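Entry:
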Amino acid sequence: MIAIGNDHTGYDMKKAIMEYLDNRGIEYKDFGCGELTTSNYPDYAKAVGRAIQKKECDKGILICGTGIGISIAANKMKGIRAALCHDCFSAEATRLHNDANILAMGARVIGVGHALKIVETFISTEFSQDERHIHRIQMLEED
């Protein structure tokens, strides 16, 4: 299951992503802002991060204006590896090499059509299981 969260600037993109996931029969849980009224992105980053920490969801998608703030907030949480991606190459690489569990995007940076391609790449790419990448992820988890 995918956790999805957004602030007010990511609301429209989230709705498009949820429709995309519905059309493909991919389960998700919406932790995001449900309207266009100003909201605080750290609240949604934490909600999605907690769902992954508790293993309620396998992966997450976070959306704010640039994707920067919401990814910073998520990456402060233990076990969370949120990757800000605005292209398919980065989305694939972060899954293969970093086993990223959250995709962050900026609704003011990329269009919805491109975002959907990035989402597809992120959710369909598996971690490589290469020992050098496993070692690096372990290093990230150290205090």
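The domain at 2-141 is CATH 3.40.1400.10 (Ribose 5-phosphate Isomerase B; Chain: A,).
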